[in-house]
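User: Sequence recovery, please. Input:
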């Protein structure tokens, strides 16, 4: 999973950010800083962000420790999500029906020179989640990218690991496993035939490596590095 226990002020910062955009069309968040970053990234009952550049001339993309649930108090309200959709309509297909089965969490509000970076975590249907990075300049959305995703449902599962490279790029390594469907002709009510069909079932394993780079203008550049697919009869 790609989760992070979010400090409650983060959601207040994003709410204030969107509220001021609506009122003034500009960004003014004096005194609304991100959370502090520890030196290590160990997962614990109170996890923290690995790297959180705030109010920096040269921002680095933040890295989050996996496998920890976010604080439920940091979930964005329906009104805040609707404001977000008005400025980032690209999310309408994913967040348009925002309700009790969804959770969008503001991980932080990072102030860079000339733009603001906001990481969002979207959880849905108690199975899956995606990590997005958004950049704004004033009231204008500069860029948005889905950085990573994780989850599991039935025979499908996906994990992602994030690492900050020495060159400043964010590296995301994802591993996705899914069952290859058995042809219907192989399935019957006969127990022996069914077991024989299941023994033929294979799993597709996809491993991808992707780098992300943040430009001084706030653009998020996606750089594919490597990908491989192979099959296995057992996980």
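Assistant: Recovered sequence (235 residues):
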């Amino acid at each position: 999973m790609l989760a992070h226990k979010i400090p409650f002020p983060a959601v207040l910062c994003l709410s204030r950010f969107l509220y001021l955009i609506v009122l003034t069309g500009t960004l003014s968040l004096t005194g609304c800083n991100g959370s502090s970053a520890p030196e290590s990234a160990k997962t614990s009952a109170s996890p923290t962000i690995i790297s959180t550049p705030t109010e920096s001339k040269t921002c680095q993309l933040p890295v989050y420790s996996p496998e920890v649930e976010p604080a439920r108090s940091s979930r964005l309200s329906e009104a805040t999500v609707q404001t977000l959709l008005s400025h980032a309509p690209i999310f309408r297909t994913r967040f348009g029906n925002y309700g009790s089965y969804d959770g969008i969490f503001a991980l932080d509000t990072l102030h860079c020179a000339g733009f603001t970076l906001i990481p969002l975590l979207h959880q849905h249907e108690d199975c899956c989640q995606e990590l997005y990075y958004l950049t704004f300049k004033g009231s204008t959305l500069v860029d948005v990218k889905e950085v990573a995703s994780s989850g599991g449902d039935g025979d499908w599962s996906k994990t992602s690991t994030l690492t900050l490279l020495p060159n400043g790029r964010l590296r995301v390594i994802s591993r996705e496993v899914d069952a290859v469907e058995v042809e219907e002709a192989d399935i019957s009510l006969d127990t022996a035939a069914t077991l024989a069909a299941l023994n033929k079932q294979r799993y597709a394993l996809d491993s991808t490596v992707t780098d992300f780079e943040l430009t001084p203008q706030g653009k998020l550049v996606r750089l594919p590095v490597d990908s491989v697919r192979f099959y296995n009869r057992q996980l």
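The beta strands are 102-106, 110-112, 115-124, 128-137, 140-153, 156-164, 170-180, 202-214, 220-232.
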